[in-house]
Amino acid sequence: MKTKRILFGVLLSIGLFAASCSSDDNDGETIVPIQGKYNLSQTGTIIDGKEVLIDAPQNQAGCSRDYLDLRLSNAAVIGDYDGSDCALTETTGTYVRSHNDLTLTIGALSSTSDIMNLTNKELKIKNKTTGVITVYTR
User: Fold this and answer.
1) CB 126 within 8 Å of CB 133
2) Angle ∠(45,33,93) on CA atoms, nearest 5
3) What pLDDT shows up at residue 32?
4) Is the pLDDT of residue 1 over 70?
5) What are the pLDDT digits (tens) for 13-47?
6) Cβ pair 26, 100 in contact under 8 A
7) Are 81 and 95 in contact (CB under 8 A)?
8) pLDDT at residue 67 is higher than 60
9) C-alpha–C-alpha distance, residues 39 and 124, integer Å
10) DSSP assignment, residue 32?
C-alpha cells in the first residue's frame, strides 16, 4: 500500500510539473533581445506558398555588407556602403518592438514588419505592406 501511495505521489508530481511548464504566455514571441548590429544577408518574398530568398542585391560588390544597428536607446542606424570607394552612409531613426512587430521610422517614413525569426544569429522580418522578406545576420 505504501508503494502505491509513493507511486501515485510521483505521478501526480510529474503531471503537475508538466502542466506548469506548458504555459504559452508569450504566444510565439521570442525572448531573444532584438538589440544589436545585423548585416544585410538576403531578401525575397513568398511565391506559391514558398519562401524565395536571394543574396541581397543592395550589398555593393567588394564592400562590407549593409547593416541595421538596433540600439538600446531605440535608435536605429542603417548603414549603406556604396560606390567604388565603398563610402559608408549612415541614416538614423528610431525603432519600436511590440510583441512580434518591428516598426522602423526614418525621417517621415515608417514601416512595420513581422518578426519571422529572431535568434542570436539571425533577424528575419517581413514587411507588412510589401511582403518583402529581409534576412539579417549577426
Assistant:
1) yes
2) 70
3) 83
4) no
5) 444 344 444 444 445 555 789 999 999 999 999 99
6) no
7) no
8) yes
9) 11
10) S
Task: Measure Cα distances from 55 to 42, 61, 87, 88, 100 in Å.
Answer: 4, 11, 21, 20, 24
pLDDT at residue 131 is higher than 70: yes
At the top level of CATH, the class of 32-137 is mainly beta
pTM of the model: 0.77
Q: What is the dihedral of CA 82, 86, 91, 92, to 10 degrees?
A: 150
Instruction: State which amino acid sits at residue 79.
Output: G
Whole-angstrom distance, CA of residue 100 vs CA of residue 97: 7
DSSP category for residue 43: E
Residues 6+ apart with CB under 8 A from 52: 44, 45, 46
Distance CA 48, CA 62 (A): 34
Give the model's pLDDT for residue 126.
Answer: 97
Query: Does residue 5 sit in helix, strand or coil?
Result: helix
Query: What does the domain layout of the chain look like in residue ranges?
Result: 32-137
Residue 62 and residue 65: Cα distance in Å, rounded? 9
Q: What's residue 12's pLDDT?
A: 38
- Give the whole-angstrom CA distance, residue 56 versus residue 60: 9
